[in-house]
Every structure is written in structure tokens, then in C-alpha cells.
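Figure S7 source data.
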Amino acid sequence: MTLTPKYSGWIEVICGPMFSGKTEELIRRLVRAQIAKQRVAIFKPSTDNRFAEDYIVSHNQRKIKSLQVQETNKILDYKDKADVFGIDEAQFFDSSIVAICRSLANSGKRVVVAGLEKDYLTNSFGSMPDLLVDAEYITKVNAICMQCGDPANYSHRISSEQKQVVVGETDKYEALCRRCYIEKTGNKK
Ligand code: ADP
Ligand code: MG
Ligand code: ZN
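C-alpha cells for the predicted adenosine-5'-diphosphate complex:
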């Protein structure tokens, strides 16, 4: 991503499994935008009903101030207040996130989105496929396989819950490479 548009907005997507450094990379890009004195607005999904100021925190404890929105549409209220939009955990937003990111990019904004492109069963997650289709720039990051140390592209759920969305950390998930994921789950999809 050495060359970015001068005249147009665009969408960047950072994807990969859990623990792969998506949030770390998102924070790195947004902090650099702040250093460049650009106005940055950062959003994460929320179960809360109000706008609340909070933090996006990576597994290695880097953090940056963010806003929680209950209604995804509220992100557009920030159109005139920011130049760069950061969105973490994009897979958890409802499908309107795609039109919102497009609308922001169409009006000249830089939109940096991080999220899981697939769930623990390797099915695509939320609106991530559509965001990847629309993005100008895509970065896919790998974690490290907890079994063998190879690059890991899969989030393996260790707990026995079966809903698609079960929020958890290393207590519930481990990153695995292709070989170890198939070995442990039998899922060859
Ligand atoms: P993500 O947002 O993709 O879940 P984060 O950016 O929050 O990832 O965290 C990345 C950090 O997680 C790494 O810098 C490292 O300190 C830590 N980490 C824990 N487990 C792993 C793993 N299996 N592979 C790589 N990094 C890991
Ligand atoms: Mg993250
Ligand atoms: Zn492995």
C-alpha cells in the first residue's frame, strides 16, 4: 500500500483469524493517521444502547479510544467530523456496515476495517465477504499455530459452545494452521 488515492476515498480491510494482529495493525494505521493530524473516528460494535467512549484493545495491550454504536447508521453522523474511519470487529456489525463503508469512501474518506473473515467452522463471517469485495486494499494476517508454530489461518474453538458468536479469548479459542485445524476438527471444508 505504498500509493493511496489523492482524489478519492477508499476502503482497506485487515482480515485473518483470532490472535493474528488485526487490531494491532488497525491501531498502528490509525495512530499514524493521528500523528499526521488527521481526524480519526474509531468504532466497534456494542450491546450498549448509547454512544459510549471506550477503547479498542489488542491482545498485546495496545489501545486506542473508540466509540461504540448500537445503531450502525450512527457512524454516518461522523461524516463531517473525521477524515479517517476505523472499524474493528466488522463481522459483528449488521449488514448495513457495507453501505456505510461505501458511502464514507464514496465521499472521500479513508475507511480502515478489521475483522474475522471466517468463523470457527470456517464459514464466512457477517458482512466481511462484501467488504472484501469492495475494498481497494486487503491485508491478510496470520497468527501462529499453537500446535506446531506454523502460520495460522484458522480460529479453533476449544469450548464446546456451538453458536456462531461466542465471545472469548485464549480460554475459548486457539489459532491453528491448516494441517493442525484439520487434524483437530476433521473439518476439511
Ligand atoms: P486480533 O485482533 O487479530 O485478534 P490482536 O491484534 O488483538 O489480534 O493481537 C495480536 C497479538 O496477540 C500478538 O501481537 C501477540 O502478542 C498475541 N498473540 C496471542 N496468541 C497468539 C498467536 N497464537 N499467534 C500470534 N499472536 C498471538
Ligand atoms: Mg481484534
Ligand atoms: Zn499447525
